[in-house]
Design brief:
The complex is a heterodimer of chains A (about 170) and B (about 350).
Chain A lengths: L1 H9 L10 H26 L4 H18 L5 H12 L12 H21 L2 H15 L8 H30 L1
Chain B lengths: L2 H39 L3 H14 L1 H7 L1 H13 L5 H16 L3 H10 L1 H14 L7 H27 L11 E4 L8 E4 L8 H23 L9 H29 L8 H12 L6 H7 L31 H5 L13
Helix pairs in contact in B: 1-4, 1-5, 1-8, 2-8, 5-6, 5-7, 6-8
The chains are: A mainly alpha (about 170), B mainly alpha (about 350).
Chain lengths: ~170, ~350
Amino acid sequence: MERQIINKRKRVFSLQPNKNPNALFARRYVSHLVPALKKINMNKSSLKTNHQSFEKTVKHEVDMAFALSAQEFAWSRFLQQKLLSSPHDDLISTSSSPSEILERSSKKQVGEKYQDRDEEEGGEIKKRLKELQKLLPGGEEMNMEEILSEIGSYIVCLELQMIVLKSIVQDNTS
Amino acid sequence: MLEGLVSQESLSLNSMDMSVLERLKWVQQQQQQLQQVVSQSINNSPELLQILQFHGSNNDEFLQSSFSQFQMLGSGFGPNYNMGFGPPLEALDECISRTSSCHMEPVDTMEVLLKTGEENRAIALKNKRKPEVKKREEEKTEKKIKVEAETESSMKGKSNMRNTEASSDTSKETSKGASEIQKLDYIHVRARRGQATDRHSLAERARREKISKKMKYLQDIVPGCNKVTGKAGMLDEIINYVQCLQRQVEFLSMKLAVLNPELELAVEDISVKQFQAYFTNVTASKQSIMVDVPLFPLDQQGSLDLSAINPNQPTSIEAPSASWETQSQSLYNTSSLGFHY
């Protein structure tokens, strides 16, 4: 019985690593992110940068790895373009610190309560679509159908990215 | 991304080959019957529609029996077919090219049209995007076959209505046969009773159905969407979820930045292996993974409790609330993560 467990332990890897899209994404993501982080690490020791710009650089690399590992989707192309066009140092992250984001979201919810009763459903949906457009990279140039198609893949990729980041972080804290 | 789906499809196709051959013979019989109709009506779509309806109403009894095998096929395709948008159409293409390589040219369009019960819109979309694979010589015969396949599909649609209960748009005479004529890009839609039949409203309806299909797909992905009804509520949930995910990613990247100096990045090999093991269909070796690779131990540091992932006990994700703490304690049902294309 124990031998079976031991034998099972040996074969933990997939025999067909390219078949599963989740694994593919995760592998690509890690292969992009980790070297980038290493490079940042090396550079950091040479320059004296403050903490915030360092964070921005890391965030930039994270987003870059994200965009590069999901090449099949339109939003990834948009994201790539955006990242490449904005320079590293002056990178103003689209989503600010968590506290600000919380404020923004709570404001939105409060504002909506008053408007919900007045506007008809079509208007509500349009409003939400606009919000969605802002969230999705490249959303401004898409119509409703495209947004809906892209959002599905975007959400799944975000989830996968989270799992990857979580496990990287946990590997290094434990 | 498509390989997994295509392999499923090819498996189902393998089991269907024998009946496909039978169908081929049947089709050739039908060709003679419908040849005149085809030659007359190939250019004019409204007439075609009428003729289709005419044939449909007259030949129902006769064709219903012979369509039983089609339904079998249709239902056989059903469970294997994941609803999705862009990629499944390409999977469809691959399946069709596969069958065409087996010298079943007249049959492949049939196979496509057999899925008319639910995948009509997919086929309609496919028409617009279908690559020019077929040769010039075959086009003529193809056109004829496609048109007659259309008649069969519309009639099959009718008989399908009577026999299948599960289809969502079984209302009296609703069916939507998608034309596969490459040069002319028509979508033949049979209007429901009492509804407008002009082009604009039909196109509108097609568009709306596409959108609702996508919304259903999103409902599966975004947790907590099942309880909410209506587009607006669902969009709200989706927005919330996306924001939540983005925030979490930011938080994690910040944490990573904090850790970065001490990062032992030789860990990359281990990480990659972990992911491979984690994401593959590991129903057989789930036990071993749980034992061997402690992927997601509970975070001891307190503030971030994201990791209570336990593949053996799937739990659903709670709807994100406003506070940061409760959001960070969402539980994942990781087996549901996947590209449902």
